[in-house]
Queue: 4 jobs
Job 1
Amino acid sequence: MTEVIDHTPPPPSAESPAPDLATAVQRVLAASDEPLTVSKLRARLPGALRQTDLKELTEALDRQVAANVLYKYPKYRSQQDRYWDRGMSTHVAQLLRVSLEGGPLPWSELRRKLPAYAQPQAQQVLEEQIGQGLLHRHPRAGSRGGERFGVRPPDPRDYLRLELPELFARLASLGFGRPQIRQAALELLHEEEWDVEPPPLPEKAVAQAETHPESPDAGQM
């Protein structure tokens, strides 16, 4: 009798094999939105790998840093080094976005919100983020202050909110009531005529104005 040999492969195991330490570390850091200390990283490892000795884990991380697989970050609010699978420029860009989530800020305030280790690279990263359309320049608000930066493009409504109270106050000082001013403003905004740009000055007039500016003493003889 001929023996029948079954070549059907055995069914796959229901449980996937546990990843090795290096692979597990890379998965944890890929899922993290910031660099992690050794302790935080170990706490996110799967299964028995959470029992890995901190010294052994640190040595494994440093080997991956030496192999240019991971990046080592300065200590910050902890005595432990931090590790991530993305470089410093990516981290600084993330810090900038987090700092600007509350609203646009001038550069001086934005820089103060960053940790000291991120400040040397911050301005270059900011310009790169603006160039890529990920962050945005905002005109200065009011007569004081400088250019600001935000995570969203500038909105003219924000500037109107700053200008309208002063305008309404000036009109109220002339004797107009606030409901009357508000109603007039709404009606004006629905008219098309007010939104017409003034015609440009003739080139000759512009040249004369630039060449012969009016003297403050003109007319005084």
Job 2
Amino acid sequence: MKKVLLLLLVFSIVFVSVPVFAEMEILHITIDGELVEIPEGYGAAMIYNDRTMVPVRFVSEFLGFAVDWVESDRLVVFMDLTHAVALQIGSRTLLMLMTNERISMDAPAMIHEDRSYIPIRFFAEAIGMEVTWDEYTRTVGLYR
């Protein structure tokens, strides 16, 4: 009887733990086919509610955007020579400032461990990039 209970306990720990670890797996990001690493101290890409979330500062700087944080409104503003994008933490709306276009997202921007995160697909598509997802390698691909 003890062996059966021990076996059931081990079985339940292994199979119940798998989904938790799946959410914690390392994600990879490629830009134009090149693997990019998020520098230490920027946070890490993660899956949250089935969406790939990336640290705002990393993605903006890597793609050549200046980024500004408006603390009073919890607002992130991204700018380059051809785009200006605003995003409020907790909101599901991405605002293209030059055209006043509003893009609805199915996941809100959020703060995790004192870092702002955005769902990468919506930001990348808003600035004209193509986005791919490879479930097998857990890789997000961004293409200009």
Job 3
Amino acid sequence: MQQLKIGFYFLALTLILGSCSTTGGNTPVTKRQAILNMREQVLSDLYKQHPQARTEVASAPGYAVFSNWNIYLFFVSGGSGYGVAKDNRTGKDTYMKMGELGAGLGLGLKDFRAVFIFNKRSVMEQFVNKGWEFGGQADAAAKAGEKGYAVGGEAVVSDITIYQLTESGLALQATVQGTKYWKDSDLNSY
């Protein structure tokens, strides 16, 4: 019971600290630029690993790229992140946030990037304008820098193709996790 209590306190502290983290700047302008730089780097990495993704991204109604981190501590997990959704027809960028909370068996920390390719315009609009929630996850990742191994790859859920690239981390998990995505009101008010 004591370990579980410590786990909850640690998770709460981690989520609080994570929500305070910046995306690479002190002003909305510099934060937006840091997110756009992250997007370009993630897309470049994705195209190296999955060359067909370049065509998928270009021909889709839109896509989103997120930088996420998760912590798994015994029976609880949580995480946060940020990203940007791009409407390929209008060229408009919508800056977004994400948060996760879950329960299950897990231990570790994982830093990863996700690319969402929207296969239908209505799905993209729903994601951007009303957010999106997703649950259920089981994976393993062990990677640090250029070394290690990550299980991830591609999944298709509700007309969204999702690519996950593990940046660094060490995690072993089987959790039921709720993930919520929403607009970042601070970065979209310009």
Job 4
Amino acid sequence: MLLALAVVSAAVFAVPSMAMAEDEPLHLTPAPAANHVDNIAGGASTLRSANGTVVTCKKIKGTIKWENGTTAKTALAFEEECKATVPGIGTVNCSTINTNGELLTHLLTIPSTQPGVLITPGASELFASFSCAAGLVKVEVKGNGVIGTITSPENACTAATQNTTVITFQQGANLGEQKHLHVEGTATTYDLKASTNGGALSTSSIEGSGTVTFSEGTKHLECT
């Protein structure tokens, strides 16, 4: 669900220094102008927690404000028929879900040399908080980061220049676990956790895709 596309992304303020020193960054060329803003759009997204809570929305939209060709700040909104299914309560309607401000986003390599993105929140580790059923259900999503893959264009590191790119977030083999938990070159584990109505944080995953449209012109992903 790109709570924090996200996403790209997406939407991320302090990557641990170890990760910055050890990861393998990617670069968009030509690099976007500093503070240039591109739009993000996507379809359905899902947040799944190991405690059984499932949150779905039908639409993703947002912006990505580039710092350079490698880092950006992403803000996302999840909207249209957002619903939460909560054990012991049932399915209830939720408000639009917004990320906690702009989230720092890094283009980098994940294991198996796949191009991807790492989205991290601020020091509070809060990605998003929202309510459902007029406040009956309150959900908080935290974590040190979430990793997605660049799924379009295919073979992005060797593809021709494009005016769009798609970032996809997937669930792993276990319920509530993200498919990708590490970036290349570091042992740091990045994951999300969600709590419902102030309960214990439970391992959670985001599923969804967001398309970034480059309004300055076509871009190429340079992999190093």
